[in-house]
Amino acid sequence: MAVIDELILLMLAASALWTVMTRSLLRSAIGLALTSAMLAILMFRLNNPFAAVFELSVCAGLISALFFCIITITEPLTPEKVREEAGARFGRFLYLPVIVLIVGLVLRFLTVKVDVKIPALEEIADVRYYLWAYRQLDLIGQIIILLCGVFGIVILLKELRKKGG
Amino acid sequence: MHLIWIFFVYAIVLFVIGFYCILATLNLVRALIGIEILMKAVTLLIIIAGYASGRTSLSQALVITLIVVETVLIAVAMGIVLSVYKHTKSLDTKNLTNLKG
Known about the structure:
The structure holds 2 protein chains of 2 kinds.
Chain A: H1 3-21, H2 25-45, H3 49-73, H4 79-93, H5 95-108, H6 127-134, H7 136-164
Chain B: H1 3-24, H2 28-53, H3 56-88
Helix pairs in contact in B: 1-2, 2-3
């Protein structure tokens, strides 16, 4: 494992921690996009280019844009209210870095014998084969999930429009 | 140290961060961000499993499916959050007491 991989993993964990710890929701959304970008870089390095492209365009792009939209639509807290809630929030999230550090260090230096039998490379086809032929039933499931999402959004927004007049 | 174990440790760390975020936050948008971080941990595990077994094509297909599910989940959840905001004029989970018995 190259040093750069470990560095990217560290940055991935750090950006995820920053995403959760930061007070501003907008900064949280930016942190999430950064986490996705780090994960995409890791995917590129681990020979997963198609998944990396999806991660970068959909997760770092589309989902971040959705988060920015919802943060803009909903009214942000006033500075006074933010100051009021800062103390309580600090108390709630104070333990997170400590827990992460303890879990990370304990697992990192735990001497677990990982005995994974890695089979010989048998890449019978590329990703298109797996997507369109090997996992056809999953593809139907994906289509159903997409339709559920579309109808869910349509029903929700229709209800909102009715209530809004 | 084994490569898989190092990735596994970071995936667990991501999982802890996401889970803590969902448990500790009172903001609905931040809860969604916690769910997203949980998804990133699962994605990392799938990627390293594919890399270790040499079947990167299969892992890529699984990750693409996961991303589709993730996007739909977030889109619908955001619709629900928006609906909650229109009703309560707040994103605070403390105000969601309509079904409290």
